[in-house]
Amino acid sequence: MADNIFTKIIAKQIPAKIVYEDDRVLAFRDIKPEAPVHVLIVPKREIANVTAARVEDENLLGHLLTVAAEIARSEGVSDTGYRLVINNGRNAGQAVPHLHVHLLGGRALGWPPG
Ligand code: 5GP
Questions:
Q1: Residue nearest to atom 8 of ligand 1 (CA)
Q2: Cβ atoms < 10 Å from Cβ of 47
Q3: What would the pLDDT profile of 31-74 be if each residue is shown by its tens digit?
Q4: Does the C-beta of 96 come closer than 6 Å to ligand 1?
């Protein structure tokens, strides 16, 4: 098992504010929210980032997006809009080496990102 903060949250060794869970995915609130709604959606399977994903992960990757859409609905940002972000690697600022989708909403978001 990789030793990073998200694998510990998935294993329930570290607490997090969980908003959704099923057998393949865990979603919890970001500890340092950048928007009124900031949820991280992570696969329970260890995948470091998109680059490390394989063909057999395609179904899981799609599931991350449909779960994100469901959480956006339950968080009340579906109609106003939201952004899904996957930081991949150093230049994107990926800090945690476990694939995760940021769901950001609840305010107008600037574009382009920094
Ligand atoms: P990245 O930069 O890797 O795309 O995003 C990592 C995210 O994880 C950051 O937004 C950061 O605030 C969040 N994060 C880091 N450590 C923890 C933690 O222990 N708990 C929670 N809930 N979020 C964390």
A1: 30
A2: 20
A3: 999 999 999 999 999 999 999 999 999 999 999 999 999 999 99
A4: yes
